[in-house]
Amino acid sequence: MMTATHRLGFTDKLRAHLELLDPVTWISVFPCLAGGVMASGAMQGTFHDYLLLLALFLMFGPLGTGFSQTINDYFDLELDRVNEPTRPIPSGRLSEKEALINSIVVFVLALGIGIVLGIHVGGTRGIFITSAIAVGLFVAYIYSAPPLKLKKNILTSAPAVGLSYSLITFLSANALFSDIRPEAVWLAVLNFFMAIALIIMNDFKSAKGDEESGLKSLTVMIGAKNTFLVAFAIIDMVFAVFAWLTFSWGFTILMYVILVSLVANITIQIMLYRDPKGGLSFMQHAVDDGFGNAIGKSDVQEHNSFLRYQVANNLLFLINLLVAAGMVGARYM
């Protein structure tokens, strides 16, 4: 009897390979790339500069992020049979060999673009860009692959995600067009800690499988309500430091806007903490019909609550971040 992987036509097989790269996750690098470019204040509205930015997005998004998703699925096949049985490998739409080939192709393409960009930009900036994608790909591999498998413990998994998805992407985008601005380093660090907080809560969706397989996510170790509390503390610290930074840079009006955003965020957090499973139900429409395709959906109640919170938090944080990056860049124009 023929297996499911052999019955698929070319279009379905191609769709399965694309799904393995998890396109939803590509969006996560875009705000950091936009912020890094804006903070440089040096990008010109030319075809050349837009082409460079597109190459950087392809490198970190579909290829870099795609590699991390593919290699994660490859090494987590048994876990995904429990947590996400509809993914391409556990569902039988792709074989393990096909998934491995997928990961090799995107790895080579991402590193190749990084080398070309590094040579084109040249100097210290070029070395940074090439090194950044090399580090990102390496971290993506050891995140999922034994023996290190950083994802086994939240103390290593969350910083790894923050480094790869936020820190190096923000700084690389800045380095693409200018020397890395001191303010850009601060903004990249804020993104790093925000990513840590969000990945901590994102683990709600796989708590059952994590517990069965021995992975030490924060939810498994301390429970859902305490996980919310830890993540909220990190997020609020990010907003507080952000407000202090904008004040020190002379962006007084923006500082007040960030403080108002912090108060709004804390109000939402209190609502969610009181009801981790059904909190912010009034925002369910925004997840289901508005942002659902971008941030995903979930059947796990706590994770579904997190997705509703993520919509509000990301709007509050990213709008302020991009405004700050634009104001920093304007100083260097």
From TrEMBL:
Molecular-function GO term, any one: transferase activity, transferring alkyl or aryl (other than methyl) groups
GO cellular component: membrane
Topology in membrane: Multi-pass membrane protein
Compartments reported by the entry: Membrane
GO aspect biological process, one term: chlorophyll biosynthetic process
Entry's transmembrane regions: 20-38, 50-71, 99-120, 126-143, 155-178, 184-205, 226-247, 253-273, 315-332
Keywords on record: Cell membrane, Chlorophyll biosynthesis, Membrane, Transmembrane, Transmembrane helix
InterPro entries, A to Z: Chl_synth (IPR006372), Prenyltransferase_related (IPR050475), UbiA_prenyltransferase (IPR000537), UbiA_sf (IPR044878)
PANTHER family: CHLOROPHYLL SYNTHASE, CHLOROPHYLL SYNTHASE, CHLOROPLASTIC
Name by which UniProt lists this protein: Bacteriochlorophyll/chlorophyll synthetase
